[in-house]
Amino acid sequence: MSELPKSWTWAAIGDVTRKSAKWDPRTSDDKFTYVDIAAVDANTKRITAPQTILGAEAPSRARQIIEHHDVLVSTVRPNLNAVAFVSRESHGAVASTGFSVLRPTESLHSRYLFHWVQSPRFIEQMVRQATGQSYPAVSDRIVRQSLLPLPPLEEQRRIATILDQATGIQDAAGRYSQILRAHRRTAFLKVLDDTPISHLPVEAVSAAVIDCPHSTPRWRESGVTCLRTANLGYGEWNWDDHRFVDEAQHTERTKRAELLPGDIVLSREGTVGVMAMVSPGMRASLGQRLVQVRPSDEINREYLMEALLHELHPTRVEHRMIGATAKRINVKALKQLLLPIPPRDVQDRFGSIAMKIRESQNQAEKRLAHVTTLTRSLQSRAFRGEL
């Protein structure tokens, strides 16, 4: 255990937090707000998509009443660090038992705790103690038994204020990327509004539609990138959880086709509607639940990706999805999915706009990565008492 400043101590999280009250919503006919794991954005660390549910329809995991200033820590897939600070808007909601609900006592500042559970040291503790290969998880007990560095309360407030300011700059950089994404979407919708449209199936505008190998990759510490749904965003890549396979596996997993620049990789199961385009110099293979779409010469690839994003949005493609527990769209249905196709010159004009936006997004992502690195460095120094 590392040495702390003299006025600091190590404390178990459970010793400086309380547990939330429990309630079974199924005892009521009223509607309630439900916060499950999917409601927390692991990137922004916010509750972004709570559900409104009738008490009679409440899932068995809906049990924990949350309050403003609580800190939620997802106990499943701790490497993704799905944590959130409960805002005033979510006060009184019911959270899944898949969270540790941490309610600070008077000796612990809530924002200080919120920043600690995002720290590499906390994440490493959770990942190290997680059990389950395909669905790694920790228990609430493990979260509460873990140690955090505890300075005097006034010092906690000072550290929390500094880290709030740093993450505010980080959030602003992230929002700029979202604005660019929205601009691309607006340009696409304008094409649909202003131009005569034909409707063609995906297979008619693709040189190939290739399903992933139906086998679980054997992960390695380093090697060749193997893509997962977690790496896909809405037209961009996410490398927060970067996985690798060895050369032999890469060769095996690319027998059907290598990934080429301009190919579009999309998810067909679970989080459907996320995708990204293969960039020059990128070498990777497909993990499970992914599909590789290679645009034909007859379509602008930037336009094709935006059309796929549009038609595979969950609200538009829901009627084509199958499966009781894990919703998915099969490859046959994907090939038959109709896309709105304007004349080629219109596609190319859109593609030119989209490429400029992509260049701006790439620059924005680089700035965000730089700010994120600085924020993490500041965070590490803060919890060593070096600020």
Short description:
This protein is of the alpha+beta class and 387 residues long.
Description of the molecule:
With 387 residues, the chain is an alpha+beta fold. It folds into 3 domains: 9-150, DNA methylase specificity domains (Adenine-n6-DNA-methyltransferase TaqI, Chain A, domain 2); 152-194 and 343-387, Helix Hairpins (Orthogonal Bundle), CATH 1.10.287; 198-341, DNA methylase specificity domains (Adenine-n6-DNA-methyltransferase TaqI, Chain A, domain 2). Helices cover 34% and strands 20% of the residues. The protein contains 9 helices and 21 strands. The protein has helices spanning 110-116, 120-129, 140-145, 153-194, 247-253, 301-311, 314-317, 331-336, 344-382, and strands spanning 9-12, 17-18, 31-35, 40-41, 46-47, 51-54, 62-65, 71-74, 83-85, 94-96, 99-104, 147-150, 198-201, 206-211, 224-227, 244-245, 264-267, 275-277, 284-286, 290-295, 338-341. The strands form 7 sheets. It has a 4-stranded antiparallel beta sheet. The radius of gyration is 23 Å and the shape is globular. The two termini are 19 Å apart. GO terms for molecular function: endonuclease activity; hydrolase activity. Residues 62-167, 259-353 form the Type I restriction modification DNA specificity domain. It comes from Nesterenkonia massiliensis. Keywords: DNA-binding, Endonuclease, Hydrolase, Nuclease, Restriction system. It is an enzyme of class 3 (hydrolase).
